[in-house]
Write a structure and sequence with these properties.
By secondary structure, this protein is mainly alpha-helical. Helices cover 63% and strands 3% of the residues. β1 and β2 form a beta hairpin. α21 packs antiparallel against α22, α22 runs antiparallel to α23 and α32 packs across α34.
Length: 697
């Protein structure tokens, strides 16, 4: 009150009106009114341009007001510099603030710890933009508006510059900055320095370092996968009298759940259960179950879930949903649906996420009918169906459609007659409308304003592709372009649709569109296009694709595999003329050199080769290659001729290979079937020598 009265007295002459003196016993309302009056006075231009002298406050020389408004220039230089530095930090000029701080500190002026704190906090922050105001954002240069991640080392230098005036807050800020950047070694080192500098207070509630600081470093350890360091630090905390709480363990388990580290999560749960004075709560168990679910450890997740139920812990929707998610990833759709029903029986209302997980479980289990039923239930209960739930249902349809396609589109190879289609005996596979249901769901999403993403369109295209609905697939590609950029999966699925419909030209056009969109076709895309060439009998184009794949830069990671070889050889085998046979021989030889077939590390030898797992066209090309290789090796004297065996299995393959050896090799090669090895064809040494001699001629 003395300070306020003195202030009013000395400032009365600066105004045209007179401020009456207030003399009464001060109470809360009086003080509040006085503070309002002083605030108005201090904000005026006249007051700010005429600082109060020490004489005006001589009645109370001990008040803080005196020290903050001294007229002595030397005493006021440090507070002025500090305010300027803080102002620079608040405006995002961190580089200028650092430069000014270094200059002031080098000039011998005393810098208060609060100023160091402001700069260190800015250096440790994730981005300078967090401190910028809107006006500065518009006019600031790009050099000053960059991430503060590069400034963490400057923060460490400032910590050292504080010397004996360093505070625990400065240490804690630097530790937090290191932890956010994943620099757990530096965070651990700084923590050790903090312990050494300040020790541990007798007051456990104000211990240095505090539990929060230890938790920061523990989380950094878990994020980096340094569980040995985590356990070591937990032990050290206990020895220093800082005991972890259930929140500490929950924070660590949250990281494990996000990264699917289920073993570590189970170990941390076990520690939490043994920690004196700490009782795991539902969050503790739910996070552990989630870690197991994300790692697809369904059995372990359900084991923990049953433990929670047996303990009598009050369950919530999140715990049930997490357990359902574990079942969904383990393809246990029946258990997932039973948990959904159990929730309802116990009065726990399932939410949109619960239904979405149930839909996903049905999709993974191929139960598309139940997935659609769940969607209908959500509509009846006026639940909002999000993108993920719709995508799960469409994915269920796509999976079922691909399964039906494999059943419906089976081909049998007849020696001398090529491939012939075998119709499915199940009438349900011959008139499927799964693709229509997928398109209906896509339309529902558009009408309901639900965001359709690349997965939505890719799954729908895959459903149409499996059914051979190539035109619908192209329409979806066009619709996708209006929403988002088509990805490789979408293009590949559309190419597959064209292949199933024996449409080479639109498939090839899609392949080129993918390249034009900047997408490098991968192995799956190449194989899909080659399959389109196989189905539409395009041997020349298929051979060109093989050559293109073999000549692709290794950095693009596109190299033919056994699927590619099988399709290419089958296409060339169906072609007419000597040129296609020569191409097939060239392709097979290239495949052997690449280790795709007849691998050196297999059980095959020079005189025994297994053909039983090859397709008919590949086995045919293999016979020509093998006998040509034997003849060349014998001609060079690198091989002693003996009986030769071909393992074919006791199936159609055996008779097919026998026909190839007899009808296509010149001179003809005749073989026998050993009595004790019905799945083997044996060429006697005499016949082999006769064939080799025929090649020399």
């Amino acid at each position: 009150c003395s300070m306020i009265e003195a202030t009013l007295t000395d400032t009365t002459t600066k105004f045209t009106h007179q401020v009456p003196m207030i003399r009464m016993t001060p109470n809360r309302r009086t003080v509040t009114l006085l503070l309002v009056v002083v605030s108005v006075i201090l904000s005026t231009e006249a007051f700010q341009t005429s600082p109060i002298t020490t004489k005006s406050v001589s009645r109370n020389p001990s008040c803080r007001f005196t020290s903050e408004h001294q007229t002595d220039s030397q005493a006021s230089s440090s507070p002025s510099s500090s305010r300027s530095i803080v102002s620079l930090v608040e405006n995002g000029n961190l580089d200028d603030a650092l430069s000014m701080l270094q200059n002031v500190d080098g000039g011998g002026d005393s810098i208060p710890a609060s100023t160091y704190h402001a700069v260190i906090e800015a250096c440790c922050a994730g981005k300078v933009e967090r401190h910028n105001n809107k006006k500065y954002n518009k006019n600031n240069s790009s050099s000053n508006n960059k991430s503060a991640m590069d400034k963490i080392n400057e923060a460490a230098d400032l910590l050292t510059a504080m010397g004996e005036e360093v505070t625990s807050h400065a240490y804690e800020t630097l530790i937090s900055g290191y932890a956010r950047r994943g620099r757990w070694q530096d965070a651990y080192r700084t923590l050790a320095a903090l312990e050494e500098k300040f020790g541990s207070s007798d007051d456990k509630d104000n211990a240095v370092p505090s539990l929060n600081v230890y938790q920061t470093v523990l989380i950094a350890f878990v994020e980096a996968g340094e569980y040995d360091h985590m356990n070591s630090l937990l032990t050290r905390m206990r020895r220093r009298g800082v005991r972890p709480t259930v929140f500490t363990y929950n924070s660590l388990l949250k990281i494990c759940a996000q990264t699917a580290r289920w073993r570590e999560a189970v170990s941390i749960l076990s520690q939490c259960q043994r920690e004196p004075g700490v009782n795991p709560d539902l969050v503790t168990f739910t996070s552990t179950i989630r870690a197991c679910a994300r790692a697809r450890k369904t059995d372990k997740a359900m084991e923990i879930f049953r433990v929670v139920k047996d303990m009598g812990v009050k369950m919530d929707v999140y715990c049930y949903t997490t357990a359902m998610d574990a079942c969904a990833k383990g393809r246990r759709w029946k258990v997932a649906l039973s948990l959904l029903d159990e929730m309802k029986e116990k009065g726990i209302e399932p939410n949109e996420v619960s239904y979405g997980v149930a839909v996903s479980a049905c999709g993974n289990g191929g139960q598309w009918e139940k997935a659609l039923e769940l969607l209908e239930q959500m509509r009846k209960e006026n639940m909002k169906i999000n993108t993920i739930t719709y995508n799960s249902a469409i994915a269920a349809l796509a999976k079922a459609a691909r399964s039906e396609s494999r059943q419906q589109r089976r081909y049998d190879y007849k020696p001398g007659g090529g491939w012939s289609k075998v119709e499915s005996s199940n009438p349900a596979y011959n008139d499927s409308d799964l693709w229509k249901k997928a398109l209906d769901l896509v339309d529902c999403m558009e009408k309901e304003g639900v965001r359709r993403d690349s997965f939505t369109f890719s799954s729908a295209i895959s459903t149409c592709g499996a059914a051979g609905r190539w035109q619908e697939s192209l329409d979806l590609i066009d619709a996708m372009k209006r929403v988002t950029k088509p990805n490789k999966i979408a293009y590949t699925s559309a190419i597959t649709a064209c292949a199933n419909s024996e449409k080479w030209e639109p498939a090839f056009e899609l392949f080129n569109d993918m390249k034009n969109d900047g997408l490098q076709p991968d192995l799956v895309a190449y194989n899909a296009l080659i399959n389109a060439g196989t189905m539409s009998n395009q041997p020349e184009q298929v051979f060109d694709l093989w050559v293109e794949m073999c000549n692709t830069d290794k950095r693009e990671k596109v190299s033919p595999d056994i699927v590619t070889l099988t399709e290419v050889i089958a296409t060339l085998d169906r072609g007419i003329g000597k040129i296609n046979r020569e191409r097939a021989d060239k392709v097979f030889a290239e495949a052997v050199s690449r280790g795709i077939i007849l691998k050196e590390d297999s059980l095959d030898s020079s005189w025994e080769v297994d053909l039983s797992r090859m397709s008919f066209p590949v086995a045919r090309a293999a016979c020509r290659f093998i006998f040509r290789r034997i003849a060349n090796a014998a001609k060079n004297g690198d091989l002693d001729v003996k009986d030769f065996s071909l393992i074919t299995g006791a199936s159609k393959m055996r008779e097919y290979v026998r026909e190839v050896l007899r009808d296509e090799l010149k001179p003809a090669v005749f073989c026998v079937v050993p009595k004790l090895e019905q799945g083997t064809l044996q060429v006697k040494e005499k016949v082999m020598r006769n064939y080799i001699a025929g090649q020399s001629d």
